[in-house]
Write a structure and sequence with these properties.
eight-stranded parallel barrel, glycosidase, globular, GH, three-stranded antiparallel β-sheet, 12 helices, alpha/beta, signal, TIM Barrel, single chain, hydrolase
């Protein structure tokens, strides 16, 4: 019954969505998003669709269980979302350092059509190495220069597929990239490209193992510029960003690196990931203001992980004075399904309650500007 209702909803939405989905871009004054050739403001209210309830990443099941993806997109739409952040694994899209996987690119084209028909924009995050089992054996032995060249080819290939679709909200070059530190005398360079593990996944990735005489800003700029140039070979329309850890929030001070004038010149808007802590909503809002650098701001990840549901809603409300979008999470199960699970867990209850709150807030937040 649930599948039937979802398909009916999707079917009813197809003609309207397909006719009305307009490209999103930054306004002339570079302060917010607008639709098409109009001055109509667009506010992002979306979800990360990074994995399902079993922890599988999208590109691990989107071929064999396509109906599941269609169903999930319908459920995401029913939550009131207008954007879905997807995470594409490098190992699924590259057969070799110099050879893209055409089947994966074809499936991405199919997903774009689904997004267009459902009326959902895509935040396409790439170069993921979340599951070690899907990291090719040939990747880590590559030199930094070779690794970057492969990453650039990934983005060239993706941009070629996506360039004409109005469903593309943006390309996010990498989830939470980090840089090596300054070595002390006698210290060895980093040896691991991935950061720490979280729930069996590695969400953080290094751009380099060694600064090699460069400043952190110089290294970050060189990488960003190379990835942007790869995309712009085929797509000069869609926006580009990088989803970052808010070190300003984590360390209680400092300035953004990827969104500094030097590094972020070619990034169209700011994407930052915030998980406010209990009793520290105002601190999070203050830290977020450090990323108000004259470009639209999207909180690309948020969830009541370290705070209450009410506190996260307060964070959204207070940041709406200067932010232009918020993206939470959807893991393939509705609030109703989560409440029916046996045995029930606190995590199920928190997620179910937040999904319901997210849905309730959707109309208001999409019309905040």
């Amino acid at each position: 019954m649930r599948l039937l209702l979802t398909l009916l909803l999707c079917g009813l939405a197809v003609p309207v969505a397909a006719q009305t989905l307009q490209p999103v871009h930054v306004s002339r004054d570079k302060t917010h998003f607008v639709l098409g050739d109009t001055e109509q403001r667009f506010v992002v209210w979306g979800v990360n669709y990074d994995h399902n309830s079993d922890g599988e990443l999208l590109d691990e099941y989107w071929v064999d269980r396509w109906d599941e993806v269609v169903e999930d997109f319908g459920e995401i739409k029913s939550l009131g979302a207008n954007c879905v952040r997807i995470h594409l694994q490098l190992g699924k899209f590259m057969d070799a350092a110099d050879r893209p996987n055409q089947s994966a690119l074809d499936q991405l084209a199919k997903l774009l059509k689904l997004a267009e028909d459902t009326g959902l924009y895509l935040d396409i995050t790439g170069l993921a190495c979340y599951h070690k089992a899907n990291i090719p054996e040939w990747l880590d032995p590559l030199s930094e220069q070779e690794r970057w060249k492969t990453q650039a080819l990934f983005w060239e290939s993706v941009a070629k597929v996506c360039r004409d679709s109005p469903a593309v909200f943006c390309y996010d070059l990498m989830n939470e990239p980090i840089l090596p530190g300054n070595k002390k005398a006698g210290e060895e360079a980093e040896t691991q490209w991935l950061g720490g593990e979280l729930g069996g996944k590695f969400f953080v990735q290094r751009l380099s193992l060694d600064l090699a005489g460069r400043t952190r800003h110089q290294l970050a700029k060189a990488w960003v510029d190379q990835m942007v140039e790869a995309i712009r070979k085929h797509d000069d329309r869609h926006m580009i960003t990088v989803g970052v850890i808010p070190w300003v929030f984590a360390f209680g001070g400092g300035k953004p690196l990827f969104y500094s004038p030097e590094v972020g010149e070619r990034l169209n808007f700011v994407s930052v990931h915030f998980y406010p802590k209990k009793d520290e909503v105002q601190k999070a809002v203050t830290a977020l203001r450090a990323y108000d650098v004259g470009k639209p701001i999207v909180i690309e990840e948020m969830f009541p992980l370290k705070c209450s549901e009410d506190e996260l809603a307060q964070f959204v409300s207070q940041s709406s004075e200067f932010a232009d979008g918020w993206i939470s999470f959807y893991w393939g199960q509705t609030a109703e399904q989560l409440r029916e699970k046996e045995p029930a867990t606190i995590a199920h209850a928190i997620t179910a309650s937040w999904l319901q709150r997210f849905q309730t807030m959707s109309a208001q937040m999409r019309g905040t500007k």
